[in-house]
Amino acid sequence: MNYEKLLAVAYAEAKAGFDEGGVPVGAALFDSEGVLLGRGRNRRVQDNDPSVHGETDAFRKAGRQTTYRDKILVTTLAPCWYCSGLIRQFNIGTVVIGESVNFEGHRDWLIEAGVKIIELNDALCIALMRRFIEQSPHIWFEDIGECHSA
Amino acid sequence: MNYEKLLAVAYAEAKAGFDEGGVPVGAALFDSEGVLLGRGRNRRVQDNDPSVHGETDAFRKAGRQTTYRDKILVTTLAPCWYCSGLIRQFNIGTVVIGESVNFEGHRDWLIEAGVKIIELNDALCIALMRRFIEQSPHIWFEDIGECHSA
């Protein structure tokens, strides 16, 4: 499987989110053959909806699936607890992570649950997220539930 | 705080979901004074959307909040990993659980993260969920990511 090619789909979502003024996290769900099932992005700003992270949006767009064990979730940024919980509850078999530099996520917790993790340490993902955090730190911290208002 | 009164709001959502043929889990988010911020229910069946659990729907309906530490999330059923992750990521201070008989949830994991848990062991919640699981086991197992086909 060419994971970089799958990541490009998630990155295009993240970039579209950035251009809309939103939190630039994109994700996509694929079957075991790499066929796209759903793609999505964080919509906190765009829809004023705190419940839509990149991963949950891709999961939604893929519709109801019988099983997720053979599915591949690709995300530009390491999943937060909310999205890690989604992965664990629905037993998503493989998670491809664009980067975990700007947000570390919960890799060990997912591995412990039997999830196969592939980290790509992608320079484009790192740069896009860093740019957003620098220009809109308050929105970023809101998105991960950290209150940084002083 | 009268938690039973808050639970009644979540239960009304669960009951509405049941009457629609959906998974009967309802939830509501309140501020520290018990003022309702958002209410919602599982919409897997109704909207064909696997991403909408009762808790995530109530969270969405409450809109963007600066902090959740002083908020109370009330749910008719013990939260799954997906919803437990939501609670932990956004540091929701208090979670009121209608019942954990039909689904045990992850109480210890939430307590460890500093969440105050109140269990009501509510007979109406138990009976409604039990009725749904008995009549539609395949939808219930799909909703918690368990493949019981075959």
Please, could you describe this protein's structure?
The structure is a homodimer of 150-residue chains. Chain A has 150 residues and is an alpha/beta fold. Chain A is built from six helices and five strands. Chain A has a five-stranded mixed β-sheet with strand order 2-1-3-4-5. In chain A, helix 1 packs parallel to helix 5 (123-135) and helix 5 (123-135) packs across helix 6 (137-143). The model of chain A has no long low-confidence stretch (mean pLDDT 96).
What about the largest sheet of chain A? 5 strands, mixed
- Relative strand content of chain A: 15-25%
Q: Which blocks of ≥5 consecutive residues of chain A have pLDDT under 50?
A: none
Number of strands of chain A: 5
Shape of chain A: globular
Brief sketch in words of this structure:
By secondary structure, chain A is of the alpha/beta class. The first copy, chain A, has helices at residues 3-19, 54-61, 81-89, 107-112, 123-135, 137-143; strands spanning 26-30, 36-41, 72-75, 94-97, 116-119.
Features:
homodimer; 150 residues; alpha/beta; five-stranded mixed sheet; 6 helices
List strands and helices in order, with pairings.
The structure is a homodimer of 150-residue chains.
Chain A: H1 3-19, E1 26-30, E2 36-41, H2 54-61, E3 72-75, H3 81-89, E4 94-97, H4 107-112, E5 116-119, H5 123-135, H6 137-143
Helix pairs in contact in A: 1-5, 5-6
